[in-house]
Amino acid sequence: QVQLVESGGGLVQAGGSLRLACAASGRSFSISTYTVGWFRQAPGKERESVAAISWNGGSAAYADSVKGRVTISKDNAKNTVYLQMNSLKPEDTAVYYCAAGLLLSRNIMSRSEYNYWGQGTQVTVSS
User: Fold this and answer.
1) CB under 8 Å to 64, separation ≥6 — which residues?
2) In this predicted structure, what is the pLDDT of residue 28?
3) Cα–chain-centroid distance for residue 76?
4) pLDDT digits (tens, 9 = 90+) for 40-64
5) What are phi and psi of 34, to 5 degrees?
6) Angle subtended at Cα 9 by Cα 99 and Cα 53, rounded to the nearest 5 degrees
């Protein structure tokens, strides 16, 4: 069974930074074979994509709303994917989820492509 656990969320002032982590575990599970995406959902809004990194680390994608402020990275040895968020804005406030899809190589920003989801971590940016 695959388990994804997000951490690193919290309350930060506008302009501040946070680094979210998505720790993956499970029998024979390795993020070296899983594409991992970060998504977020604000109250009353649909879940939207933020960033994704391909299973081989060869490509990353970002939503236009976060480009230039967010960097996704992975550490295969730790089975962990990170989301570094800088210059945070109040509109970044949401619950952030990570998701994993086996050998996913197309539509990596589409939430419907992902099989496994974490429980989320709250990010609140105050103005």
Assistant:
1) none
2) 82
3) 15
4) 999 999 999 999 999 998 899 999 9
5) -125, 130
6) 35
Q: Summarize pLDDT for 87-117 with one digit per residue, the tens.
A: 999 999 999 999 999 998 889 999 999 999 9
Largest Cα span, the chain: 43
d(CA 52, CA 62): 7
For 63, list phi and psi in degrees, rounded to 5.
Answer: -70, 150
Find residue 4's DSSP bridge partners: 24
Cβ atoms within 10 Å, residue 127: 9
| Four-point Cα dihedral 34, 37, 41, 45, nearest 10 | -100
Q: What is the 3-state secondary structure (H, E, C) of the chain?
A: CCEEEEECCEEEECCCCEEEEEEEECCCCCHHHEEEEEEEECCCCCCEEEEEECCCCCCEEECCCCCCCEEEEEEHHHCEEEEEECCCCHHHCEEEEEEEEECCCCCCCCHHHCCEECCCEEEEEEC
Contacts of 23 (CB under 8 A, 6+ apart): 4, 5, 7, 78, 79, 80
